[in-house]
Structures are given as structure tokens and as C-alpha cells.
Amino acid sequence: MSTHDNLPATTTADEQAAIEAATAALPAHAPRRTDVDPKAARRAERQVALMFLGSALMTVLFVVAFVAIPVDETVYIWGIGPTNASNIALGVTFGLAIFLIGAGAIHWSKKLMNEKEVVQLRHPLSSTDEDRQAAIDAFDEYSADSGFAQRPIIRRSLITAMVLFPIPLVVMLRDLGPLPGTVLRETLWRPGSRIITDPTGRPIRPSDLAIGGLISAIPEDLPAVQEEEHNLNARAKAAIILVRMEPQEIVSQQGDNWDFGGILAYSKICTHVGCPIALYQQRTHHLLCPCHQSTFDLADSGNVVFGPAARRLPQLPITIDPEGFLVAVDGFAEPVGPSFWERGNS
């Protein structure tokens, strides 16, 4: 059916004629069964409510599965094989929670909301006050047509589903792991940690590094920690580079006598977004990050000379042990890795 009650007050006779012509081209409106049969309408209403309540039930089951099913438990699925039971349960319950809300909303709109064929001509983008008021009136009318206020069982079941729906999103935050605490500020470097080459694992003597040379290195206990933790988190924080220059070329350091015979140790992780760095310019003693071109002066405390990095590269104080191998005097005095809003130099 065509509705002219919603036309703006500024509609001209020509526009009304065009609207009537377009409306006449529409197929004849056929009422739905729910429009003429109250029993069918009530049945559709119950179906919509069951879908919303089913979504709420799936949300609750998601939380139960998250808590009750061990993360290492497996289940055999035909055609797939052994599969993690927790992932299957969480995926099915959360997927059904989303699906049932969407299916219920679609069923509600197709079976119960008032349907009208409306033709409206295109107008300039700027609207008059009369058009704005007409839009508000149309919104109020369509809101009433949806039956949201008149059908409490749908309204309440939808509210129940929508209130419970965010719970899985909150619960899944638990999978992000524990709060970081001091983990972002601590590395494996300790007083006396021997420095070894990465990846060969060979201890380093000062004579192994020529003037202008660069070596990527790690602490000696890193391989054992990686094998125990089954991840690369410790490596991402502990990786360093060793460079050697003439002692008189060192302008400044982050601590007194933190070098050994012109050998300096710096974190290998850019303080911008955490890219590994190893592009060393021997003549200028600049270290260039390949990701965003942050440049650090290793002869001057690792200070930033160019690019988006906001902090200097942390320096590792080094010396030699009784066997003549390079070791750390202590850990980093500044946090390694990317900068963020709460991280300064401490």
C-alpha cells in the first residue's frame, strides 16, 4: 500500500504525481499470515522469544564451558580428527549466541513488524526543518509499528539476550594472560650473565670483535629458558648487539665505564614499536631501524637522532669474567622494547 501521510509538507504537486506513478508500479501488497491471524502472530512472537532466550542460554553455556573444560582436553570429531574440546565448545556456544540474536531479529522483522511500501523521491542533501520533523514523526510511527512496546515477551527476552551477550567478551579477556606486572621491565640479564653469540651460542671474548664490528648476542641461560617456557618472549626482551669502536670515539654512556675496551652493548629492540635492529653505520656509529627509520647514536648513549622513536636504546653494562669472556655487570637500567603512554625511562 502507498502512504502519503509521511510526505514532507514541502512536496510539490509534480513530486506527488511522480510518487503516485512510482507507487502504482509496485506490486499489490499481500498481507502476511501474521497480519490476519492472531494465532500465527502469537506463534511467531513465541518463536522470536525462544531464539532470544536460546541466545541467552548459549551465553551461559559459554561461560560454563570456559570454566569447566580443561584447555588440554581433546575430543574426536568425525572427518576432522582429534580437536581441542574447549575450542569446539566455546566456538559453538558463542557462535549460536550470535546467530540466535540475529535470527530472532530477522524473524521478528519479517513476521511481526509492520511492512509498508513507501516511495520517496530524492531531494537535496540539506533538509528543511519540516523534513527533519517529518523524519522524527516517521521514526516515532515506525517504532510504534515494530510492536516493541506492545509485545513485552519479545522486549524482555531480547533485553535478556543483549544483557548477557557481552559476558563472553569479558570472560575471554582472561585468555589474554595475567596482568604484566614487572614482566615488561625485567629481562634475563643479571650480574655475571655470560654473553653468547646468537644463534651459535658461543661465548664471546673481546678479541672476537674488531673495531667497527657488530655481533648479535643473548644471555647464556636464554636457550634453557626458551625450552622451558616454549615461547620466544624472553628472547624478545634479552636480545642485544655488541659494537666496538675506538674508546676516544665514545661521547657518552648511560653509566660510568659501561663499556669494555670500546665494546658497547645495547638492546637490539627498537624503542618505537619493537623491531629488531642490526643496521650499523660504522663511520657515524648510527644504528638504523629498518621498520620506520628510527636512528640511534651508539657513541652517544644510544640517543635518538632521527625518526619516531621516543626513547634511547637501553645500554647493558659489561665487563669480562675471570676466564676472559664478556659478561653483564648488571641488567638494563631502563625498560627495553616499545614505548607506550605509561613508559618513560624508568
Précis, in short:
By secondary structure, the protein is an alpha+beta fold.
Give the secondary structure arrangement, pairings included.
Layout: H1 13-24, H2 33-36, H3 38-68, E1 74-77, E2 81-84, H4 85-111, H5 129-146, H6 152-164, H7 167-171, E3 195-197, E4 214-219, H8 222-229, H9 233-238, E5 240-244, E6 263-267, E7 279-281, E8 286-288, E9 295-297, E10 303-306, E11 315-316, E12 318-320, E13 326-328
Antiparallel strand pairs: 1-2, 3-4, 4-5, 5-6, 6-11, 7-8, 8-9, 9-10, 12-13
Helix pairs in contact: 3-4, 3-6
Describe the structure using short key phrases.
elongated; 346 residues; alpha+beta; Rieske Iron-sulfur Protein; five-stranded antiparallel β-sheet; disordered N terminus; 9 helices; four-stranded antiparallel β-sheet; 2 domains; single chain
